[in-house]
Amino acid sequence: MRQLLIAAIVSLGLVSGLAAPVAAAPCKDAKGKFIKCPPPKPAPPATKTPCKDAKGKFTKCPQPPAAAKAPPRCKDAKGKFTKCGTPGSKAA
After folding, report:
1. Of the chain's two ends, which shows fewer C-beta atoms within 10 Å, N or C?
2. What are residue 74's DSSP bridge partners?
3. CA angle, 25 as apex, 7 and 14 as ends, to 5°?
4. CA 38 – CA 19 distance, rounded (Å)
5. How do beta strands 90-91 and 74-75 pair?
6. Is this structure's pTM higher than 0.90?
7. In angstroms, rounded to a whole number, what is the distance separating the alpha carbons of residues 21 and 15?
8. Domain ranges of the chain
9. Phi, psi dihedral angles at 2 (to 5 degrees)
10. For the chain, how big is the Rg over CA atoms in Å?
């Protein structure tokens, strides 16, 4: 049991030791020569695209349609849901 535990710890150490240099590898060109790594590309700005008409002029963007409202729910005196308009029902 101890041998298995020691073997697992040693193999984990070797794997993690080999992964570190690979992650930090310098950049190379097509011939394999070391070169300076290019800076990372900046992320595009997360802006809303403006609306344009057929001529290419900026216009106000149309508003998205509003979600349909759910019908009102009513309860009777005992607390059970009923149709609205029945005697004794009140809006929940």
Report:
1. N
2. 82, 91
3. 5
4. 22
5. antiparallel
6. no
7. 11
8. 1-35
9. -65, -40
10. 34
pLDDT digits (tens, 9 = 90+) for 11-47: 655 555 544 444 456 788 889 899 888 888 887 766 6
Cβ–Cβ < 8 Å for 15, 7: no
Tokens at residue 78, please? 């005992």
Structure token pair of residue 65: 């349609």
DSSP the chain: -HHHHHHHHHHHHHHHHHHHHHHTPPPB-TTS-B-PPPPPPPPPP--PPPEE-TTS-EEPPPPPPPPPPPPP-EE-TTS-EE-TTSTT-EE-
Amino acid letter, 50? P
